[in-house]
Automatic annotation (TrEMBL):
The keyword Nucleotide-binding applies. PANTHER family: PYRIDOXAL KINASE (PTHR10534:SF2). Its EC number is 2.7.1.35. Keywords: ATP-binding, Kinase, Nucleotide-binding, Transferase. GO terms for molecular function: hydroxymethylpyrimidine kinase activity; phosphomethylpyrimidine kinase activity. It holds the Pfam family Phos_pyr_kin. InterPro entries: PM/HMP-P_kinase-1, PyrdxlKinase, Ribokinase-like. It comes from the Bacteria. This is pyridoxal kinase. Residues 75-262 form the Pyridoxamine kinase/Phosphomethylpyrimidine kinase domain. Signal peptide: none annotated. It is an enzyme of class 2 (transferase).
Length: 287
């Protein structure tokens, strides 16, 4: 028997945080990291994996891959029928023009209040292998829906349709103006910007850009962008302002990078070690 509160008989008060990105079955990458981090904030999560991979795409050869496109629509319809609402959403790697359009339609339907988009598509001056040269332009309509976007420097240049140049404040302001002309009005956090012996992010909100530096650990650490975007989403969900959320997310990410830096290089392929980061988050939630 059902009643006005739904099939379960209880009024729904939980509004899950929606996570839309690829899911690697091995290690702490993308969706696995995002779920772990957001649940440590006390969030209930809902997952729409854009693809299922046996491993991440770097360091393990060609992964086995399963398309989830039909399932995404079916899951969304099921949630709507159950009256499930989403307060917040995080979108990461998508990977194809068709899926970008599908995700766009799903977001229109599910209508999260806050939308963080990590426009994952490149690094170190280039698009990731397998993505078409038009991929940045394909992401622009989706980014127009965002409240916050978290590109790295390469992705910011690509999204603005400009060549990748050295990061400076003047170049940053020019790229932001390009995005505004494209009607991308989201607040912007540019990640992984190295300056001298430090690395950090630029926060572009309603005022002048602010650079938030932390200690730089040499080497390549897989999944830092995924982890940062999840951390930022978690802190924003606590209703703090963007600068404070980015400050906290950067500090927490540094904890994970420091822990992972103790591993042999080959073992870093599994993603960031999250033990110390999660312990820090748990203390914050308890307080």
């Amino acid at each position: 028997m059902t009643n006005k509160h739904g099939e379960g008989g209880a009024m729904a008060t939980i509004k899950p945080t929606l996570i839309i990105e690829d899911c690697s079955a091995l290690g702490q990458i993308s969706t696995v990291a995002a779920v772990t981090i957001l649940q440590s904030f006390g969030e209930t999560t809902a997952l729409l994996p854009t693809s299922l991979l046996s491993t991440q795409t770097e360091g393990f050869g060609q992964p086995a891959q399963l398309s989830t496109a039909p399932w995404l629509t079916q899951a969304s319809l099921h949630w709507r029928k159950q009256g499930i609402n989403f307060a917040n959403a995080l979108v990461g790697y998508i990977g194809s023009a068709q899926l970008i359009k599908q995700v766009d339609r799903l977001l229109v339907t599910l209508q999260p209040r806050q939308l963080v988009i990590d426009p994952v598509m490149g690094d170190q001056g280039s698009l990731y292998p397998g993505l078409p040269s038009t991929y940045p332009q394909l992401l622009q309509p989706l980014c127009r829906r965002a409240t916050v976007i978290t590109p790295n420097w390469t992705e910011l240049c690509q999204l603005a349709g400009q060549p990748v140049v050295e990061p400076t404040t003047d170049h940053l302001l020019g790229l932001v103006n390009q995005l505004r002309e494209q009607e991308i009005t989201a607040q912007i956090v540019v990640t992984g910007v190295k300056q001298g012996a430090q690395i950090g992010c630029w926060v572009v909100g309603d005022h002048c850009p602010v650079y938030l530096p932390v200690k730089y650990f040499p080497g390549h650490y897989y999944g830092t962008g995924d982890t940062f975007a999840a951390l930022l989403t978690g802190f924003l969900n606590q209703q703090v302002d963007l600068r404070l959320a980015a400050t906290k997310a950067t500090a927490a990410l540094t904890t994970a990078v420091a822990e992972t830096s103790q591993l042999p290089v080959a073992e870093r392929r599994y993603g960031l070690r999250l033990k110390n980061l999660l312990a820090t988050l748990a203390k914050g939630v308890e307080q």
